[in-house]
Amino acid sequence: MNSTGKKILFAIVGGLLGGMVGVVVFVGAGYALAELFGVQNRETQAYFSAFIAMPLGALIGVLTGATGLAAIPARSKVALISVALTGTIVLSAVTALGVYWGMPKRAAQFRVRNETTAPLQRTYLGHDFRRATSLDSIPPGAVSDYHTVDLDQRGSFNAVRAMHRGHQIQLTLDLARQTSLAPGRYTYVVREQANNITLELRVD
């Protein structure tokens, strides 16, 4: 195979691999990128991640991977390496942004105790689907593990959502309490009283 054929082959393989990496990186950081560009609505952020971040990540990944591998058999490498290096820097920066966005800035730990007589199924901590934590099923009398949340992001801890006796429930902590919590450990206690489901927050 001549030099041109090798470059094309390497570029195709690199483009495929780089495209997959780019999609993963940009989708993982999609909500962080949306906030960076001033998009605050949760649903709009989801569309931004799917229809802008994903294609952009694929494009940057393809260019980075294709030029990076094509430079291996190429005689003139400077231009190809420059493009690949620029793409690598962009992908690294977006990765760092996504990691930083997901890190709690003011951390606390929450768990959920089920004091009803029926299991809490498909249980989530927090009302914001971008930051909510899945707790799976919590049997009667059981308590979930502690999960770390960000007190500066109320949607990560301000509610307990679950299926209970075949009905979807969402129990929300009052706003004044949400904004007054300090870092520490907390337990949500879910009770059933006179056919009403109640939520109590305890400081552990």
Quick structural gist:
The chain is α+β, with helices and mostly antiparallel strands. It is 45% helix and 26% strand.
What would your notes on this structure say?
With 204 residues, the chain is of the alpha+beta class. The chain is built from five helices and eight strands. The chain has helices at residues 3-28, 30-36, 42-70, 78-102, 175-178; strands spanning 107-114, 120-125, 133-138, 147-150, 159-164, 167-172, 185-193, 196-203. A four-stranded mixed β-sheet has the order 4-1-7-8, with no helix packed on it. It has a four-stranded antiparallel β-sheet with strand order 3-2-5-6, with no helix packed on it. A hairpin with a 2-residue loop joins strand 5 and strand 6 (167-172). The protein is elongated, with a radius of gyration of 23 Å. The model has no long low-confidence stretch (mean pLDDT 93).
Fraction of residues in H or I helices: 40-55%
First-residue to last-residue Cα separation? 69 Å
Beta-strand proportion: 25-35%
Strand order of the largest sheet: 4-1-7-8
Enumerate the spans where pLDDT stays under 50 for 5 or more consecutive residues: none
Shape estimate: elongated
Radius of gyration: 23 Å
Strand segment count: 8
Which structural class best describes the helix and strand composition?
Answer: alpha+beta
What about the largest sheet? 4 strands, mixed
Number of distinct helices: 5
Please, what is the average pLDDT? Answer: 93
Oligomerization state of this entry?
Answer: single chain
Q: Tell me the series of helices and strands, N- to C-terminal.
A: HHHHEEEEEEHEE
